[in-house]
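FORM 12-B: Structure-to-Sequence Request
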């Protein structure tokens, strides 16, 4: 991996990785703000703002934004997380300047027309309705609320119906002015792109934009074991069980990547084999991790018939206890490393994946590691490292459950202790 990084006089950073064999470019404007940076009366405003920027500026209305992207055959969209917002486009290299014209205009000069804000409120509320109709999403939201209870990471990115209905135009414009600026943005690009040319294009379009680096409130999570249940008559119970995990800079993350692969990633994982293949209790069962600047979480998701909930959770609990007590085998370690080697190599063949890695790591202050450097990190992990991180995470006394199904929280509380 070779990348080039330039910081413009106004503080805006431009980072690129050239992929000469491509004719396309993936470019993303990463803004250092997300739902965790919202004040109490701003719940969901980061995501709402993401929608509104595509409504255009005074000089470029929403229809012109969409028609310009369509005319050059570009893919364009945006996403908001708890810690960042990204506006991106994937387009032909010859259309890069046109794409940057649009992105620079909507990010620096949003119109915030009152009628469009009111119309988009309902769009966001429909998005909230869509997610709340998906029991899988609700189970994950309940788990996140439990594991990050009392912390700014606990709130949903979308906000609530009431918060979206209540936020005013002045509050939206004030949040944009407070959190958006040259010092809080990274432009990342990968594909058929020349770094010097892109720096020149960005300089022409963003040179007059001001804004300092933004701050964040980073504090540890103090949550206690808890069950958060959405009682609902469903054909399938959706359950997430887990606990506090590692922040994104913790060096133990490399060992946990392997542990999570062995336990719950892929068809050869222990949980997939025991819960699905041997017992037929679920179609989907897998492990995952959440990693943020100051906190993290690990978890296991399972979807099963409500009457089989106890059996599935007992198996998951037993498998977690086994790996804490005995670790994994040498064969599992090598198989996981081999799978992750292949996954890393495949991910680097996609320009959009590379752009996301560049932008995310630069914005968060993480080191830009090459595939070789990442593989070296993984290869250095041994069985003792895996056993230690299993004890640190799976063996901890704090467990949280988020669930959707025809039961109450008290029905699942017995699964909180190790």
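FORM 12-B RESPONSE
SEQUENCE OUT:
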């Amino acid at each position: 991996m070779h990348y080039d990084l330039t910081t413009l006089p106004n503080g805006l950073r431009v980072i690129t990785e050239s992929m000469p064999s491509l004719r396309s470019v993936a470019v993303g404007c990463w803004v250092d703000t997300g739902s965790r940076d919202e004040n109490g009366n701003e719940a969901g405003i980061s995501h709402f703002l993401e929608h509104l920027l595509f409504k255009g500026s005074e000089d470029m209305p929403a229809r012109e934004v969409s028609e310009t992207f369509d005319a050059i055959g570009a893919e364009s969209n945006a996403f908001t997380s708890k810690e960042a917002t990204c506006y991106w486009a994937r387009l032909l290299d010859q259309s890069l300047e046109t794409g940057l014209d649009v992105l620079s205009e909507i990010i620096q000069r949003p119109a915030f027309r009152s009628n469009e804000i009111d119309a988009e409120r309902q769009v966001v509320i429909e998005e909230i309705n869509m997610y709340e109709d998906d029991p899988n999403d609700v189970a994950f939201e309940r788990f996140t609320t439990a594991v990050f209870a009392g912390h700014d990471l606990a709130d949903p990115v979308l906000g609530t119906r009431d918060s979206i209905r209540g936020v005013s135009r002045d509050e939206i414009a004030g949040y944009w002015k407070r959190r958006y600026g040259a010092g809080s943005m990274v432009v990342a690009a990968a594909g058929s792109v020349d770094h010097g040319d892109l720096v020149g294009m960005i300089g022409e379009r963003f040179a007059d934009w001001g804004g300092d680096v933004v701050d964040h409130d980073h504090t540890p999570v103090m949550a206690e074991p808890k069950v958060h249940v959405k009682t609902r008559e469903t054909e399938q119970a959706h359950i997430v069980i887990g606990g506090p995990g590692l922040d994104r800079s913790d060096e133990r993350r490399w060992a946990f990547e392997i542990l999570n692969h062995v336990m719950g990633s892929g068809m050869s994982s222990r949980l997939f084999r025991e819960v699905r293949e041997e017992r037929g209790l679920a179609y989907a069962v897998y492990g995952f991790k959440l990693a943020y600047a100051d906190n993290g979480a690990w978890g296991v998701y399972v979807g099963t018939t409500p009457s089989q909930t106890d059996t599935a959770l007992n198996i998951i609990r037993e498998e977690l206890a086994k790996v804490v007590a005995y670790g994994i085998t040498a064969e599992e370690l090598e198989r996981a490393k081999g799978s992750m080697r292949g996954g890393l190599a495949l991910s680097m063949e996609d320009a959009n994946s590379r752009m996301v890695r560049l932008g995310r790591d630069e914005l968060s202050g993480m080191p830009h590691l090459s595939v070789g450097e990442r593989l070296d990190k993984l290869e250095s992990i041994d069985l003792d490292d895996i056993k230690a991180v299993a004890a640190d995470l799976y063996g901890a006394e704090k467990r949280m459950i988020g669930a959707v199904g025809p039961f109450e929280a008290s029905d699942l509380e017995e699964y909180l202790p190790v």
